[in-house]
Amino acid sequence: MTTKSNELVAAQPRKFWMRWRVRIGYPVAVLYLLLAHPTRHWIAMGAAVAGFGILIRAIAAGHLSKDRELATSGPYARTRNPLYLGSAFLAAGFAIAGHSWWAGGLIVIYFVVFYYAVMRNEEEDLRARFGTVFDEYAAKVPLFLPDFFGTGYMQPQAAKSSEAFSWQLYRRNREYKALIGAIAALAVVWLRMWLERRYGY
User: Fold this and answer.
1) What is the reported pTM?
2) HEC string of the chain?
3) What is the mean pLDDT of residues 107-119?
4) Is residue 137 predicted with pLDDT exceeding 80?
5) On the CB side of 173, how many CA atoms lie within 13 Å of its CA?
6) Residue 150: pLDDT over 80
7) Topology, domain 12-147+163-199
C-alpha cells in the first residue's frame, strides 16, 4: 500500500467523527432547547463560564499555525488541546445556562463522545506529519487537562520567537467566529427563557 493510500485510510476515522459531530450537533441543540429551563441567573452564570472558554480558545488560536508547524507555545505548553479545553468550558457554560439536568447531561455526553474521538484522530494526523517531534511533545504535555505543576514543554531556542500571542494567527484561524457563535447561541437560550415565561413552553 502506498503512502498516499495509508494517509487516505488513516483519514477515514477522523472524517467520520468530524462529519457526525456536525450532523448530530443540530438535533442535540434542538433537544437541548426543548429540555432547558433557563433563567436570568443561570444564563448569567453560564455566560461567565462560556466566556472563560472563549478566552482560552482565543489565546490558543493566537499560538496556532495550522498545517505549518506544531503548536507548542502558550497554552500548548500545558495541554495538547487548549482549543478543545476552551470548548469544554463553552459546553459547561451552556449546560449551566440551560438550568436542566437533562439538557446539561445531553451536552456533556455529546462533548465527551465526539470530542475525545476527534482529539485522538487529530493526534494521529499530527504524529504522521511531525513524527518524533510530536512524540517528544506528547510525552511531556497531557492530552487535555492542563499540567500546571510541571515545567511544561520547553521549546528549542530557535523557536522562542513564536512564543508570543499573535493577533494575526487569531484572525487567520477565524476564532472570532466562536465568539460570535457563542453570543448568538446565548441569545437563543435567552429567547427560550422568554418564550417559557410568556407562553409556558
Assistant:
1) 0.86
2) CCHHHHHHHHHHHHHHHHHHHHHHHHHHHHHHHHHCCCCHHHHHHHHHHHHHHHHHHHHHHCCCCCCCCCCCCHHHHCCCCHHHHHHHHHHHHHHHHHCCHHHHHHHHHHHHHHHHHHHHHHHHHHHHHHCHHHHHHHHHCCCCCCCCCCCCCCCCHHHHHHCCCCHHHHHHCCCHHHHHHHHHHHHHHHHHHHHHHHHCC
3) 91
4) yes
5) 22
6) no
7) Four Helix Bundle (Hemerythrin (Met), subunit A) (1.20.120)
Average pLDDT over residues 83-99: 96
Please give the span between the terminal C-alpha atoms of the chain, in angstroms, as a whole number: 57
Q: Which residue has the cell 480558545?
A: 57
For the chain, the domains span 12-147+163-199
Q: Is the pLDDT of residue 89 over 50?
A: yes
- Sole residue written with cell 455526553: 109
